[in-house]
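QA checklist item 7 of 12: single-chain prediction sanity check.
[x] sequence parsed
[x] length recorded as 389
[x] structure emitted
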Amino acid sequence: MRALEGHLGDAALIVLSGNDDESAAIATMRAGGQDFLVKGHVDGFLLRRSIHYAIERRRLELALEASEARFRNFADASGDWFWETGPDHRFTFISDGFQRVTGIAPGLLLDRSREEVIGGPDSAVRRRYHDALEAREPFQNLEYWIELPDRRRCVRISGVPVFSRRREFMGYQGVGSDITERKELNERIARMALVDMLTDLPNRAAFEEALERAAAHGRRHGGTTAILYLDLDGFKTVNDTLGHAAGDEVLRQISVRLRSCLRAEDIVARLGGDEFAALLTATTDDACREAEATARRILAALSDPVMTAEGPARIGASIGVAIHPLCSPTIEQSVRDADGAMYAAKRAGKRCVACAASTPETKGRCPLAAARADNQSEDSSIGRARSCG
C-alpha cells in the first residue's frame, strides 16, 4: 500500500482482500483507497455498489481538487490571500499570498492571533474588528498599515463567521488584499489638494480648514485666535531683476524662516503668489501683544538677505493682525480685518505690523495700530509695532 501512496492519479482504488485485518484497511485508506472489501463477505451487488460509489467519490474529490486549484490560481493572480481562524480567533490557515506582501511565512501565523503577528490595526479599526468578532458578525474592508522592518504595507481584510450544522461557532474565514499603492496614491492626491507644492506649506484650502477648526474650538472652549496676513515687500523686484527661478527659491527659503518663528501648534500657509497667512492658536489673555511679538520675530527673520544662485535678494513684509473674536465675532470678518490691516501696514511705509479692529465695541481693546518702519535706521527692514491695547 505504501507504494501506491501519491501514485493513484485519477483512479479510484478498491481493495478486495482475504485478510480482514483492521490495519490493512487503515493502510488502504491512507493510500487513497475508496473501500476495503473482504472476500467471502461481499456479493456481486455489494461489489457493484462499492465500485459505483468509489468512482463517484473519486470524481467528486478530483472536482474539489480542481476547484481548489482554480481558487488558488485566482488568488495568486489577484494578489489576495485567504485566511481562517478557529473559535479562539487564532489562525488555522493562511495562504501563500500573505508572504508575498509581508515577507512573513504563513506557518509562523498558525495558532497565533492577528495582533500577535502584525501588531493589529489602529484603535478605531481595532474596535470595529473586535466588535464584529464578539458579535460573530461579518466584517468588510477593514484597512490598516502593517509596519515591517524595511517597509510598510496597507492591507484590507474581510471575513465571515463559520458555524457548524449545529450552529456551533467554528471561527472565521476571510480574504486579505494589499492596497498599498492605491492608498499611497490617494494620500498623495489628498496631500496635493492641501499643500503648496513649491514651499511644502499648507495652501489656502488647508488654511481655511484650519480657520474653521479654530472657530469651532473657540465656540466650544472659548479663548482667542490670532490671524496674521503677510505680504512680501520687494518680491516683484526680485522676479524682475533676478528671474522667476530666483523668486521661487526666495519663496522656499522664506517659508522655512516663517516656520521657525512659530510654535509647533501654529499654522503658516502660502495663500498664493507672495502672500502668506498664519494662525496662532491658544493665545494668552494679551492676545494682540503676543501676536505682534510673533509678527516682529517674522520681520526680524526676514531682515537678512535671501541668498540665491543669481545673487542676494532683500525681502521685507507687511503684516496685518486680527484677533478673533476680540476684533469680530465671526472668523470670516476677522480674516477680512487681518487682510485690511496688512494693507494698512503697507500704507504706513511697509516692513511693519498693523493690528486691526472691525467694530467700535472692540476698538478700545484692539485698536487699529500701525507702526511705520524706522527709515532712518540701518536695519529699517524691521518694523516697530505699538501695543494693541
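[x] summary fact logged: Residues 358-362, 365-389 have pLDDT under 50 and may be disordered.
[ ] second reviewer sign-off
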